[in-house]
Amino acid sequence: MEVGRFSQLIAEYLQPLVPGETVRSLLEASADPVIRPLDLATLFRRNQTYAQLIRRMDLLQSRIAEWVAEDEKRLDMGDVILDRIVSLLGKQATRNAGVCIGLHRLSGTLPKKETDRFNLNPQDQIKFALTVEAFCQENSLAYSEKAYVAGLHYDWLKAIFVKNKTSKDAQTALSNAFTEGFEMARIAYDLSRLVKNFKYDHYVFSAALLEPIGMSLMSALYPKDLAAKSWSAFIADCEKFKGRKDDAFDALQSQRFDIRHHELSALVVNYFGILATVEKAVHFSKEPHFLKGADSDLYRLAAILSMAKTLQRKKPMSEVQKDYMRDLQIAEHEVLLMSEEMKMKK
Amino acid sequence: MATHLITSACTRCDACAAVCPTASISFGATQYVIDQDTCTGCEICVTVCPVDVIVPTPRQQPE
Lengths: 346, 63
Ligand code: SF4
Ligand code: SF4
Known about the structure:
The structure holds two protein chains of two kinds.
Chain A lengths: L2 H12 L6 H10 L6 H9 L2 H6 L7 H10 L6 H31 L14 H4 L1 H12 L5 H20 L4 H25 L11 H7 L3 H8 L9 H9 L5 H13 L3 H12 L3 H8 L12 H17 L6 H9 L4 H14 L1
Helix pairs in contact in A: 2-3, 2-6, 3-6, 8-9, 9-10, 9-11, 10-11, 10-12, 10-17, 11-16, 12-15, 13-14, 15-16, 16-17, 17-18
Chain B lengths: L3 E3 L18 E3 L4 E3 L9 H5 L5 E3 L7
The structure holds iron/sulfur cluster (2 copies).
One iron/sulfur cluster binds next to α1 of chain B.
């Protein structure tokens, strides 16, 4: 990748991806079952921006007015209100509110004046995170909190795209990457259940969800005005290979761009900084065998991503992937059954 | 980073928010506030506050 484009990648897209300390602590604390909602209030108190702005949520204004009216002279009313808000919202909604404040910070839309409008709207601001978390919870999939964090990578990148006025193509590519990642995540999760004594099973869903996210960055960094050198021209060229377009996509990417989308995905995870294990697995998801001697569980995680991608594309496993299946002690008929079931669901 | 915060004696004069180079100052529920994650401690805001209510953040005691 040329130096100028690499600098653009770092400055415009990757550095803003680093969540602040408050959001990071909030995500860690809210995933910890021992932590109570009131502990989150303590965390908010460490940063007065968060402690105050959570009190600007529209839906709480009449409640807050009642609480203030109860005892107007109380000097610690701010603290009392904060404690009552987190008790009322509970852990998940408090976490969501804090994360949305962090996103406002990223987008530069925190109120500068008392009269400025300010709203928290989790359903819109963190749509991707909430979608995967709800799916995991509704379907009794384990580790929904990790899926939520993985989904947040998409929400964060979306906010960066909007702020940077990145092309519509890149924004569409981000939505498409999420759809593809979501499908891969469900398949990877099912695959991981066939693997015995697997240490990283809690990372499978989030790793698969994040594998395609780099495609949106490819679209942002190689826009349409680069003509034949653009990401969209590359996709169009792959389409010409018809039944073998996925093979062309994998084989030609590094030749055309000097970097592959999943390597950018791994960089996204690296900068977000919460799912370090996922980063390595995504980075090696096209060549899991490189991890074989170094870390057998990481190898298995990367191999699951590789196989999930193939199943998501509705393709048969390659010979190398059959080796992965043997290493992971997954019987071929179980995978065949899975892929038949997927076809039937379609 | 947690370097500076605004006490409750803020008069909401609106002088500080515009000068912060990291856009760390916003209006909270009742007063101006500083984002502890992004404030770099440059103290430019301190120089414009007419009532000296922007102060260094007390160090956290180890729990
Ligand atoms: S000390 Fe500097 S960075 Fe911090 S709030 Fe004041 S002007 Fe902004
Ligand atoms: S300059 Fe001082 S008094 Fe004025 S809004 Fe800022 S902190 Fe408050």
